Amino acid sequence: xxxxAFLTRPSSTGISLNFKFLIAGIxxxxxxxxxxxxGDLLISPLRIVFEGSKKSQEISLANVGKDTATFAxxxxxxxxxxxxxxxxxxxPDSGQRFADTFLRFxxxxxxxxxxxxxxxxxxxxxxxxxxxxxxxxxxxxxxxPDEKPxxxxxxxxxxxxxxxxxxxxxxxxxxxxxxxxxxxxxxxLSDLNFAVTxxxxxxTVTFNRTGSMSVYGDLFVDYISPAGKSTQVKMVKGVGxxxxxxIRRFKVELDDDKNIGYNKGKLHVTxxxxxxxxxxxxxxxxxELK
Length: 290
Description:
By secondary structure, the chain is mainly β. The chain has strands at residues 5-7, 21-29, 36-38, 41-44, 48-50, 56-63, 69-76, 78-80, 86-88, 103-106, 109-112, 117-124, 133-144, 165-180, 186-197, 200-210, 215-224, 230-241, 247-253, 266-274, 280-288.
């Protein structure tokens, strides 16, 4: 994911006095619409949008691991920062609306045998209480650790002092967006700059979002030689700017294995938006190479 993953810090609540348990959490904010695996869980799709007359949707879960696994399902509130990273929040920013009040989903816990799949259903509720705008929360799928039964002393005891047992807890989040009313959003590209950092070609670009809704799309970067030949040097799927953010500063490393010196010619940048009505819309920008 391009730019949409973030890590939680290890939780101190999972550490006992003898330091027996250390729990680390990983949350991935996903930015594509196809399926993706995290740990042993495959989820599809990875972005849910309610708009128009759509009142219910389904998310498909599949266990691609070799062991039976249990996953807890809940809702989280997440903020996108200007650099595209994410952080969990409790209180919405000005102009941000949470979707959790208007969503019902089931089941809230799923146990899957190897190669088994199940559907989580989501429904809109209380829609009459919604005013025009965009509402967003994130559906969180957290792996539930397989705890040993009480009295199970099959593990070897440590006779030398402190014992540390690592128990990573994997989780993945997907955005759930509710759109009410007319979508007036637009986006422009600015501050396009190219530099070579640590011998790697790097492009920076700023997305400028306006209007009532988030924007979401795919980024394409083409190198145009002085003779006019075009070569694609990067494609990034699922680049979004979520409300209430008006800008996102994006950095992308370009391909350096196509015999391109990046010291002449230009870079042509195209951001193709994914529109709800399936129409095509794109914005473009260029940066001269010297």
